[in-house]
Amino acid sequence: MAVDKSMPILIVDDYKTMLRIIGNLLKQLGFENVDEATDGTMALGMLREKPYGLVISDWNMEPMTGYQLLQEVRLDDGLKAMPFIMITAESKTENVIAAKKAGVNNYIVKPFNAATLQKKMSAVIGEF
Amino acid sequence: MNAPVSSADLHDKIAEIRVKQGDTVPITEIADIVGALMTSMEGDISAAQFEVRREIGDLVAYLDSARREIAAISPAEIKHRDIPGATDELDAVVGATEMATNTILDAAEELSDLASDLTAEQQKRVGDIAARIFEASNFQDITGQRITKVVTTLRHIESKVTALARAFGEDVGTVSDAEPALQPETLAGTDDTDLLNGPQLPGAGNTQEDIDALLASFD
C-alpha cells in the first residue's frame, strides 16, 4: 500500500534548529503535515490529542527524554502501536539496546543525511 | 597551654561539635581537640604514646597546610567568577552558532522556494543543494550538546572545589543551587540518566552501520 504523504508526523527535539532541519528534509521527501514539540512532555500531550502517523524524536531533552517518551507511548493503550524513530547523538551500544527493548522502530544517529532519513522511515512506514 | 582534660570531657566536646557542625569540622576545631587530647596525655606517657602524639601533631600541621593551600586557590572566585564566566562564554558560543544556523537555514529555504520557477532538472539540482545545506547544519545540534557536556563538567568541578573548601572552613559565599528539573509523573517511572551520554568523540561511538546491524540482531 502506498504511503500517505499527507499523514501527520510529529518531530520532537529541544534544539529548534534541528526541528527546522528535520522539517525541511521531510518537506523535501514530500511530507508537509509536520508538527513540532520541544520535549517529551509536550509531545506526549500532542500525541494524545491528534492521530499522528509517525513520531521522530530526539533522546536528550528535559524534563522528559525521548526514551521516557517512547516508554510512555508504548504503555499507552491508544498510542502503543505508534511508529517511533529515535534521531539522536546517543550512539553507545547500551543506548541502542535500551531503545530497542523499549520498542523503538528505528534508530538514526546524528549527524544524518536525507538519504538515511528516507531509508529509515521507509523501513518503518513503507517505501515512498 | 590547655588544661588537662578527661576522656569524658573530650567525648562531650566531640559530641557538641558534631551537633553544631554536622560531619564538616573546621580545621581550627580539629586542632583544638587534638591539642586537648595531647595535653591530656601529659605526664605519664610511654614511648608509643609519644609517637602517637607526634603523628597527630604532624597530621594537624598537614591539615593546616592543606587549608592554606585551598584558601590560596580562591575557591570563592572559582565559584562566583571563574566558572560562571567560562559557562557564560560557552553559552554565548551556542547562541552564536544557533543564530548563524538559522541564517543558513533561511537561505536554504528561500532557495528551495525559488526552485518552483525552474525546470524539473534545475529543481532537482537546487533541491539536492538545499538538502546538503540542511544536512550540514546538523553541526549546531552536535556542538551544542558537546558544549553542554563541558558546562556540566565545569559545574561538577565547581561543586567539588566548593565542598572541599567548606570542609576546611573556607567561606565560599551563599550557595543557591538551582532546583533540579522537575521529573514528570510517568507511568514508566524510569530514570534514564545513566544513558544520557551525549555525542561521542570521533571513533568512540557506534556508526549508523553498527547501529543498523545491532538492531537487525534483534530480529
Describe the structure.
The complex is a heterodimer of chains A (128) and B (219). Chain A is of the alpha/beta class. Chain A has a single domain (9-125), classed as Response regulator (Rossmann fold), CATH 3.40.50.2300. Chain A is 41% helix and 16% strand. A five-stranded parallel beta sheet of chain A has the order 2-1-3-4-5, sandwiched between helices. The longest helix of chain A is centred in the N-terminal third of the chain and has 13 residues, at 16-28. The N and C termini of chain A lie close together (10 Å). In chain A, 52% of the residues are buried. The model of chain A has no long low-confidence stretch (mean pLDDT 95). Chain B folds into two domains: 7-72, no CATH class; 75-172. Chain B has seven helices and no strands. Chain B has helices at 7-21, 27-40, 47-72, 75-114, 120-136, 139-167, 208-216. Helix content of chain B is 68%, strand content 0%.
The helix count of chain B comes to 7
The structural domain count of chain B equals: 2
- H/E series of chain B, N to C? HHHHHHH
Distance between the termini of chain A: 10 Å
Oligomer: heterodimer
Low-confidence stretches of chain B: 175-182
Overall mean confidence score, pLDDT of chain B? 80
How many separate domains make up the residues of chain A? Answer: 1
How many DSSP helices of chain A? 5
Overall geometric form of chain A? globular
Structural class of chain B: mainly alpha
CATH class of chain A: Alpha Beta
Pair with the biggest interface:
A-B, 46 and 44 residues
Taking all residues together, what is the mean pLDDT of chain A?
95
- Topology order of chain A in helix (H) and strand (E) letters: EHEHEHEHEH
CATH topology (fold) name of chain A: Rossmann fold
Structural class of chain A: alpha/beta
Helix content class of chain A: 40-55%
- Range of strand content of chain A: 15-25%
Task: Name the features.
A: 128 residues, alpha/beta, Rossmann fold, five-stranded parallel sheet, globular, B: mainly alpha, 2 domains, 7 helices, elongated
